[in-house]
Amino acid sequence: MRFSDIVFALLIGLGLWQALVIITDAPHFILPSPWRVAQAAYKSRVIIVENAWVTAIEVVLGLLIGTLLGVATAIQLAMSKTAERLMLPILVFTQAVPVFALAPLLTLWFGYGMGSKIVMTVLIIYFPVTSAFHDGLARIDSGYRDLMISMDAGKWTFMRHIQIPNALPSLGTGLKLAAVYAPIGAVIGEWVGASKGLGYLMLLANGRAKIDLMFASLIVLACLTVILHIAVGILADRLTRYAQGTSNT
Amino acid sequence: MSKSPGITLKGQHRIGGRVLFNADLHIPGGQWTCLLGRSGVGKSTILRLILGLKTGGVFCGSFIATDGIKLAGRISYMAQSDLMLPWLSVLDNVCIGARLRGRVPDTASARDLLRRVGLSNHADQKPATLSGGMRQRAALARTLFEDRAIVFLDEPFSALDAGTRADMQELAADVLKDRTVLLVTHDPAEAARVAHQITVMSAQATQNWQVPKTAALREINAAETLVCQAELLAYLRGIAA
Fold it and tell me: Which of A149, A150, A166, A238 to mutate to test the interface with B (most CBs of B within 10 A)?
């Protein structure tokens, strides 16, 4: 994705938005123009940055903790057939419960602060990371297993020196998915009950019919998600290039 | 490395009730034995059985080392695929066995092995930067690093071009001298060149083939090598029909 392409796509998006405002002639409290939103964003820049910072911390911490838990679970599942047999069905079953439905409960348990949003983010990304990494760990050339047996390798040393590096591209795929889901988790947590964050700001602006501020918050949230997606994409690409031996890192 | 023992294998291997092969095989110690036969007859299965790898069937019989000591941990293995780990340098690939056993590898000896296989200048490169032949040489160095008396080679040179294959045969014959080598191959020319013993396998039995009287490693264009190769090929075509 080239920078010029991004700018071009952005200009097309803004043009379509402005055209929609002109064609529908909607009042500004229903559909504000891009210019009006830009003005609101500038005017409320301090409050937007404050709340965006809170959401960003929730997302990044949730992503880190969720990834660590997912990686640890995937390794455990791959190391032990018993754990795999017992835990995989439970993991799949937990996915049948919509995580969004747990948001009020999490708020009750972990309070209105960052804690409940981080837990929500962790819950939402835990399965994709675990599943993708576990697939990668299990999908290994049988030749490597033969080599392991002929070399009298230990289970853990095989995991550490062969299975984990071999599964890094799969972990990258899981992380890319997680980067898309993580902001959703944090914002839904904020919608259910919060005193800070972009989700909270959007609700607040909506309640006061400040739709331009709501749009501004939404755009900042989208920008945060895109930045996260690009950053995680770069990390995933590095993991893949490392595993393929095509990078110098 | 201790003195290389021979291996004796006798028994029947079944897959789902069907007999894959009946074998009575003696692999002499310190020599190269080439195992030939049509595809699917169970050549690689014999090798996998002795190595303790999965075979997808049941073996009724026994295999023992001629010195009476257990075979486990005394055999190193090289497959058709080089199985280089792409994220490690060539040197680290050679040492991987030690790391997998939880030991600190002797990198000086690994570098020396890389020198023997002509890869001194590529020790710190990643396998992706090497040619197929160079990767197989690195795999050979990794096999040697294990420093085991018995070496099993499962069609290790079959994917290489003819010139590189001939070079690899010469290199392997040199560096694996005095070890007990079992080479599974489809190539009669390879067997006629490197073998001290040629064993042809069919579902019913294993039989030893007359090898040229000259010492291995034989010249590619030597008359006795070519005759052995031609006769072996004719025989293999006959049993494959």
Answer: A150
